[in-house]
Amino acid sequence: MSKKFKSSKNQSKRRRTVLLILFSPIIVLVIVGIYSNKPQQPQPEKPLIPEEYIPIYFAAEEKFEVPWYLLAAIHRVETIFSSMDPMLSPVGAEGHMQFMPCTFVGWSHPTCTDLGQGNIPEDEKINPKVIAKYNGYGIDANGDGKADPWDIEDAIFSAANYLAKSGAADGDIRKAIFAYNHSDQYVEDVMYYVDLYKNLKKEQ
Fold first, then answer.
1. For a designed S-S bond to 111, which of 42, 84, 119, 141 qualifies (C-beta 3.0 to 4.6 A apart)?
2. Complete DSSP assignment for 127-150
């Protein structure tokens, strides 16, 4: 084989190697692009309302005649279904449904003034007898001897109790929401979820 022919062959081989190096990334990108454009499998939708809370809403609805979806809407607006951490507002509202201590225990408690944070001893905050004495809205929903705004059942039943006495049991939902939080914007925020949830089947 002549040196000239051998040199030409080597140059041709080098050109093919260079072209392969240059165009390999483009080929890979084209292949990846083809597969990435394939329709993805749809992700399952998350439930609008966490399933574990729904039976509690229904039970509270049955006892206090307050629509379950109103309880769900307030739970959503107040603590995003108990996902906020901590569930304690800057003004002192506590627990899953954000009760002010004086609203939960009763405004006739001797320490209750102003916004309702009060200076209520912790053992009195959850004592059903103390709550009954001061005409509070706290409810012992699960029969454990405590009415606790940090207990999900107690909190939802207490909210239902408050809303029922504020007009929701008579169908005046907007009035009840405004009583829960004296803000027109709050009423609209809650009503958004009321309208969303009331069209859901109870089983979702």
1. 119
2. -HHHHHHTT------SSSS---TT
